[in-house]
Amino acid sequence: MRSRGDMITGYLFVMPVVVSLAVFLIGPIFYAFYISFHEFSFLAPDQAKWIGLDNYVKLFQDPRFLKALKNTSFYSLGVVPVQICIALMLALIVDSKIKGKTFFRVVYFLPTVTSTVAVSVMFMYLFKSDGIVNLFLSHLGLPTHDWFGSIKFALPATMMMAIWTTVGQFMVIYLAGLQDIPTDLYEAAEVDGASPWQKFRFVTWPMLRPTTFFVLIMSIIGTFQVFDQVYVISKGEGGPQDATLTVVFYLYRTAFKDFDMGYASAMAFVLFLIILVLTFIQKKFFKEETA
Amino acid sequence: MWRRWIKILYYTVVIGYAVLTLIPFLWSLYTSLKTTPDLDKMWVPVSHLTFENYQYIVTKFPFFTWFLNSVFIAVAVTLGNLLFNTLCGYALARIQFPGRKLLFYVVLGVMMVPGQVVMIPVYIMLAEWGWINTYWGFTIPFLTQSFGIFLMRQFFLSLPKELEEAATIDGLSRWGIFWRVALPLAKPALAAQTIFMFLGNWNSFMWPSLLASSEDMYTLPVGLNSFHWQYVAYWNVDLAGTMFMTIPMLIVFLIFQKWFIKGIATTGLK
Fold it and tell me: Where is the ABC transmembrane type-1 domain positioned along the sequence (chain A) (predicted)?
């Protein structure tokens, strides 16, 4: 092709992206890395002081950061498997011969298009001490709680909210994965006399492997970055008594309330590293099983 | 016989979960229509329900301004992404130029970096430029996105090359090929991108809450959060605000639901 003119067109096409990436992503990544080795305050940027690895060392001695890390891990560990199991189960049923497929798909997807702030307000209403969740529980003779106000239950309630919000999205992705499985595989399994469970175990589940991998990664990354819900339900405090303090939330507060931006940047890189390692482990795990 | 039981079990599960999904919306909507004296009653006759909470929030609070801010920002950012990501994705898929591979790897690489890493430097930079609390700050930094670029590149790669080659023989310029041949074929990918960008921006909370420092610059999520903590005892008013922000998006979703579901289902899996 008219290569020289084409080359220029090519550069023109990518120009906006290159500028935007350089200014708002690549540059800032290096700058963040740079200030993570400094004592850097937003209020006095010219007094930044090189302190080497001190921010990183301090992180692992900071009880609040460790608490945030613990809360985030607990949150992720609770949300990810439950979310994926419910999504897969619903997708399998909706994919089988039932009526009203479209209806279920649309209904399950509603929470995904709703803002997390709106969902949080709705859940705070449902889970308040004299709300309908407690009313329902007391009818069943079960103990009631001041969910979002209690040290013990604020985080689990937030987790339930997260599951409720994202199940529909993952279910739709699973559904697409299920529809990509060629029907002759099932037919062949039937000829071999496979039971429904065997069909799931030896056809559906292995064929869904790439979907599961994708959903798992999305779910882990999403849960490790949880912020909005926690900010809304705790009035921007992470309470009660740090019960809902998460890594991103603590980072946000450190950077924009305490203005300790060097320390907060170190936190961001630790989070990046955690996500990277988790993704890498997943990848390895999934590769090995297919080989 | 047990086939029937399985069927009953299936329906119980899917209907049960549908009820679980709908209750928070319906109960919130119902409460938002109650008057304050009726608030503590569980059931209120339909004739007692009113829209006065909605009238109250729109007239006494800048909910309408927040709505317009949200619409403006989401539309501007979505358009920017559609244009720039698509151009870049096309060039990465089809045009030969030195540095193409490098750019592609950079795009892939930055997808791994969580947004919180760049949040602080970008904030410092925007503060220096005086862009905090301005529409510039809300839109310009967000006009391109690596995931969107990747999506478009993959899509253009999946199109057959022959059509474009035929167009070249017919004497169309590169721009003409992009505009008249490739773009019309890319409608499904463009629809998916529109939905992601719009939804993501409409619901985005962390950045707008950082960037908006005065009430008139709030977007709906930021406004609702601040409103909630002022009105925490008046759940009917509070939930009217919640519904005010939720219902428009639900309507958009119901109209375009096929596209939404297709968009979510097809992306990221290639």
Answer: 69-282
